[in-house]
Amino acid sequence: MITYTKKLQIFLMFLIACVFIGGMMLLSLSSSINNKNETIEKLTKALMTEKMMATSLEEYNGITSQLEKEMLELYDKNNVLRRDLSMVSESLVEKNLTISLLEQQLHNEQRKLARYKSNYNRKMKTQLANEQKKMNTQLEKDRIALQSKEADLEQQRTELDKLKNTPVEKTVSAEEKKAIDEERVESLMKKFDSYQVDLSVENKCDKDYLYRYNEAKSTLSHIRTYLQKNQMDSSYYHFVIANDTSITAQNRQLCIED
User: Fold this and answer.
1) Is residue 212 within 8 Å of 197, Cβ to Cβ?
2) CA-CA distance, 193 to 208, in Å (whole number)?
3) In DSSP terms, which residues pair with 141 in a beta bridge?
């Protein structure tokens, strides 16, 4: 009985030991399986990571190729832009040179215009001054001629008044009338000589000379009429005839400005 009990105890102990060992082995196996699973999971993740990296690398290579292609295109465009920029720069230099030349020409033309205006204004002032001087001279000559005519008219009026105031019963002797006529004719002859003109020459461009020329002709006609009216001595007719001959034989018409 004791022997059976011991055997049973030994069997139980063996069984317990086997269970313990089995449990330990199972625990170890479970731990190993877990480790394997973790390893598999890590390897799976690593594999997926590698695949993702491979995919990313392929994409990166594609992107890199695309970037290289775009860089080449940009490089070509940059070269084109540089060439265009060089052409534009050359054109800009030419334009600036043209602008500079045009500005210089404009400056020269402005200086010429300023000089022309200055010369024109000075010339116009001189011309206006000369015209004013000529006008004043002509006005002065006209004034003197008018005064001379007024003096002649006043003399004639005085003589007429003398004749009017002479009593009817008083008669003028032939000698007195002759003296009066001779004095009048000599006065007209002096007036004719004062014009200082040559009746054989008519200068149509000298207004002053032409005025004196016409006045001399008028005075000569007055002398002729006075001589004929008063039947004066023939010696005075030589003066009229000589100057009439100059008018009749007139063959020179000049144009000489004063």
Assistant:
1) yes
2) 16
3) none
Pure H helices in the chain: 2-165, 174-194, 207-230, 237-248
How many Cα atoms are found within 13 Å in the side-chain-facing hemisphere of 114? 6
d(CA 218, CA 188): 11
- 216-252 residue pLDDT tens: 889 989 988 998 888 887 778 888 888 877 666 655 6
Distance CA 43, CA 38 (A): 8
Report the mean per-residue pLDDT for the chain.
80
Q: Which residue is it, tokens 């206006």? A: 128
Q: 237-248 vs 207-230: helix axis angle to the nearest 10?
A: 140
User: What backbone torsions phi and psi does residue 45 show, to the nearest 5 degrees?
Assistant: -65, -40
Q: What does residue 247 show for φ and ψ, rounded to 5 degrees?
A: -70, -45
End-to-end CA distance of the chain: 189
Residue-by-residue DSSP string for 63-127? HHHHHHHHHHHHHHHHHHHHHHHHHHHHHHHHHHHHHHHHHHHHHHHHHHHHHHHHHHHHHHHHH
Determine the Cα–Cα distance for residues 137 and 206; give it in Å rounded to an integer.
Answer: 13
**Amino acid letter for position 210:** L
**Across the strands, what pairs with 254?**
203
- Tens of pLDDT along 29-85? 777 777 877 888 888 888 788 777 777 677 767 888 888 888 888 888 888 988 888
